[in-house]
């Protein structure tokens, strides 16, 4: 299991992360942990003034979810059908920069002396606040207090409020507020999880405009053809006169504010920044939209923005809060994760949630199956309107998925990309990329989950059914019946990326079976409930009469490898015949294996990067007995490295189910503080959004024992020994249910909605608005 890379600790506080002294050793990491975002804009938690600390210890990144450049993928040796272009999230102009000059000395946290330093990110206000005292090398002492907000209610807007107070002098002070367009992306090294392959500038200057207090840069991407306007408006006030000068240098524009500051008198700077791009609006409108937004933000003011921000978060926490009593470290980790998920998720139907959110360039801003299998449940049960937007995003990509299917020689159907931003397949390494055909079933699974939780037949008729049927067709395209009559799916890669290009990956086949049946059932439902929509879908997809019957036939004889001697499900046809990896002889520093062994060496062994069969045990829970689950867990745990951050949460959930309570707790702990404790040693490149959402699943599915199968909701809660109680909430079928588990009792409360029925350890519970609560003593539990 990966080890924490250093000693990094924040005081344990359920609602905050706080750096209580300037921690230069963890500067790079803290830039990720203190990042702010609103699902569109992402500002790494870098200091406004820049940081001249050691090289490689900072990445002053600013990202816009879904705003990308595209580049041809260069293969030294090509092959037909390989992904042609990469898309990567751009580092866009840094609009938060503020230079502070005291006479001719420039403020820089890497110089001078820092005292009384505190930086805090509050999950209830959404404000990143920093306060400190700094003594310049020349002996001038100032107090600084700043607050930064990225607006949840306006995706284009962020703001900074910045106060400077001279403590031991009076004299000239200069503040320079700028937008810096001379930015570039981080260069990738040998680690496939980091950065893009592009070096050098990616944005070309189109225009640079300045008004009284505003500065704006218009740029264009080279290949993707997007135009971006990044604009700021700055106001400085103090006791005396302020001289404002426009300032330009290359692709940097801003205003400088010169004044005479009196000792003990506070100078206040307020800055608003906006980003508008042609992914959302017509090119010719962008500049005007940016100016209007700035004028509006300035008129509303910084404090009003903070009030709206807090109100947005109050609503979020009222609906989504997971409470754990008796374990402060976990409580902090869980809130941190929930907060970052909210900051990361695209919610405009055109964007999705990247593996690292908008906090860093790891995995290039790509969207993966992480969304559907790990992140979707959190939003579905906490903020269903966002979950719906994630599905809209997939519907918007259906035409490209059809095109990709044709490139892959499938005459019918749609194949979604393994990794992408705007819908085009971007995986340059197909064995662990395009070969993961399970992405199609993962998307269908999330649509099924959505339908079962919301009953939203309108969505199914308008979009969902079409995605499900088009993606289902691919299984018939890549599978075939063997001599024994089994339906086999060959040459695919399952979730475990340490095993590639195999036949009958258990997870893939089992999920394909679910998918095929769901597609056929859904068509029946639409045909009987929405005849008009059925006719439209059938005609748009050239659906054949007998197609659904063919899907059912394949599903019914799906090959699902099982080893009777071991009593376990085989990960694929060949997995168990391979040699087990020699874990005893593998030094700790050789993990993750992917950085230390050629893929073929790894592929030849029984060794897993992450949950594969074990994930099927969760997603298709009712298809396995408890004994099956236990044996599979025992076997695969012994050969799994958890080198992927997507692994521990799943092992925690199944450990809970099979009664391995200590393991459940340990794996959960590993997931819940994965980024806060940097246990994978790469959080500086961005947070791990799938693992963050895995924490929510760990509580609800793991300790809460929640499952939704065949539309039925059930719980089987257990309470870890260290906890006094925990509580989480689930939006389902128009109701909001709170589940509270204490020592000796579980309490279910209908917070909203008319009625809800579910099971508690097999016993049926019915709540209504008239009788909204049920408390069940442990002695009554099965
Ligand atoms: C995992 C994949 C995952 C990707 C992005 C990889 O390390 O093996 O399952 O989709 O990271 O998070």
TrEMBL record:
Residues 19-279 form the Glycoside hydrolase family 65 N-terminal domain. InterPro entries: 6-hairpin_glycosidase_sf (IPR008928), 6hp_glycosidase-like_sf (IPR012341), Gal_mutarotase_sf_dom (IPR011013), GH65_N (IPR037018), Glyco_hydro_65_C (IPR005194), Glyco_hydro_65_M (IPR005195), Glyco_hydro_65_N (IPR005196), Malt_Pase/Glycosyl_Hdrlase (IPR017045). Residues 706-767 form the Glycoside hydrolase family 65 C-terminal domain. Substrate binds at residues 369-370, 609-610. The keyword Nucleotide-binding does not apply. Pfam families: Glyco_hydro_65C, Glyco_hydro_65m, Glyco_hydro_65N. One of its GO terms (molecular function) is hydrolase activity, hydrolyzing O-glycosyl compounds. Residues 336-697 form the Glycoside hydrolase family 65 central catalytic domain. GO terms for biological process: carbohydrate metabolic process. Keywords: Glycosyltransferase, Hydrolase, Transferase. The active site is at 497 (proton donor). Belongs to the glycosyl hydrolase 65 family. This is Glycoside hydrolase family 65 protein. It comes from Massilia cavernae. The lineage of its organism: Bacteria, Pseudomonadati, Pseudomonadota, Betaproteobacteria, Burkholderiales.
């Amino acid at each position: 299991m990966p080890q924490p890379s250093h000693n990094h600790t924040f005081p344990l506080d359920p609602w905050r992360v706080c750096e209580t002294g300037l921690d230069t050793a963890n500067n790079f990491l803290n830039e990720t942990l203190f990042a702010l975002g609103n699902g569109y804009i992402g500002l790494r938690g870098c200091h406004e003034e820049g940081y001249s600390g050691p090289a490689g210890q900072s990445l002053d990144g600013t990202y816009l979810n879904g705003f990308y450049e595209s580049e041809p993928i260069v293969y030294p040796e090509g092959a037909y059908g390989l992904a042609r272009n990469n898309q990567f999230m751009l580092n866009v102009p840094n609009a938060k920069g503020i230079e502070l000059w005291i006479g001719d000395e420039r403020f820089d946290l890497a110089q001078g002396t820092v005292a009384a330093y505190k930086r805090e990110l509050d999950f209830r206000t959404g404000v990143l606040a920093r306060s400190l005292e700094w003594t310049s090398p020349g002996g001038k002492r100032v107090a600084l207090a700043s607050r930064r907000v990225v607006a949840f209610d306006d995706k284009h807007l962020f703001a900074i409020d910045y106060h400077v107070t001279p403590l031991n002098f009076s004299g000239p002070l200069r503040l320079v507020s700028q937008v810096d367009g001379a930015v570039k992306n981080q260069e990738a090294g040998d680690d496939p999880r980091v950065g893009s392959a592009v070096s050098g500038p990616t944005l070309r200057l189109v225009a640079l405009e300045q008004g009284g207090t505003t500065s704006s840069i218009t740029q264009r991407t080279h290949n993707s053809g997007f135009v971006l306007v990044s604009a700021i408006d700055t106001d400085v006030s103090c006791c005396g006169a302020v001289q404002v000068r426009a300032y330009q240098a290359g692709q940097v524009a801003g205003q400088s504010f010169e004044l005479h500051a009196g000792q003990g008198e506070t100078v206040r700077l307020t800055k608003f920044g906006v980003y508008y791009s042609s992914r959302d609006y017509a090119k010719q409108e962008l500049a005007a939209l940016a100016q209007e937004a700035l004028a509006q933000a300035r008129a509303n003011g910084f404090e009003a923005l903070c009030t709206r921000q807090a109100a947005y978060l109050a609503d979020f926490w009222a609906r989504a809060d997971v409470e754990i009593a008796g374990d402060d470290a976990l409580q902090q980790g869980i809130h941190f994760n929930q907060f970052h998920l909210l900051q990361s998720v695209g919610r405009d139907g055109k964007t999705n949630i990247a593996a690292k959110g908008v906090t860093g360039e790891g995995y290039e801003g790509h969207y993966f199956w992480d969304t559907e299998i790990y992140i979707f449940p959190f939003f579905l049960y906490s903020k269903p309107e966002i979950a719906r937007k994630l599905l809209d995003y997939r519907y918007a990509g259906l035409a490209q998925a059809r095109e990709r299917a044709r490139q892959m020689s499938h005459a019918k159907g749609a194949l979604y990309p393994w990794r992408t931003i705007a819908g085009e397949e971007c995986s340059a390494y197909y064995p662990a990329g395009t070969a993961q055909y399970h992405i199609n079933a993962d998307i269908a699974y999330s649509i099924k989950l959505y339908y079962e939780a919301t009953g939203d037949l309108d969505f199914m008729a308008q979009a969902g059914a079409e995605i499900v049927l088009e993606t289902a067709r691919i299984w018939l395209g890549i599978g075939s019946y063997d001599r024994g009559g089994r339906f086999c799916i060959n040459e695919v890669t399952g979730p475990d990326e340490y095993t590639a290009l195999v036949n009958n990956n258990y997870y893939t086949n089992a999920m394909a079976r679910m998918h095929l049946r769901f597609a056929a059932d859904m068509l029946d439902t639409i045909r009987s409930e929405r005849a008009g929509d059925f006719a439209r879908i059938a005609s748009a997809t050239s659906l054949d009469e007998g197609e659904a019957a063919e899907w059912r036939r394949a599903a019914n004889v799906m090959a699902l490898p099982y080893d009777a001697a071991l009593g376990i499900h085989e990960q694929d046809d060949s997995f168990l015949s391979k040699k087990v990896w020699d874990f005893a002889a593998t030094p700790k520093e050789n993990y993750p294996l992917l950085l230390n062994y050629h893929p073929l060496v790894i592929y030849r062994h029984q060794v897993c990067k992450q949950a594969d069969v074990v994930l099927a045990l969760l997603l298709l829970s009712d298809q396995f007995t408890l004994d099956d689950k236990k044996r599979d867990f025992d076997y695969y745990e012994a050969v799994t490295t958890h080198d992927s951050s997507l692994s521990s949460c799943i092992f925690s959930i199944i450990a809970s189910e099979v009664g391995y309570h200590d393991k459940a707790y340990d794996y959960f702990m590993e997931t819940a503080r994965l980024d806060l404790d940097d246990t994978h040693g790469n959080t500086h490149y961005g947070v791990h959004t799938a693992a963050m959402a895995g924490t929510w699943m760990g509580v609800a599915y793991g300790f809460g024992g929640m499952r939704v199968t065949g539309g039925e909701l059930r719980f089987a809660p257990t309470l870890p020994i260290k906890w006094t109680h925990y509580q989480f909430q689930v939006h389902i079928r128009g109701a909001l249910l709170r589940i509270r588990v204490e020592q000796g009792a579980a309490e279910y409360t209908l917070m909203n909605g008319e009625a809800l029925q579910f099971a508690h350890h097999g016993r049926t519970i019915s709540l209504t608005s008239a009788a909204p609560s049920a408390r069940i003593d442990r002695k009554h539990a099965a």
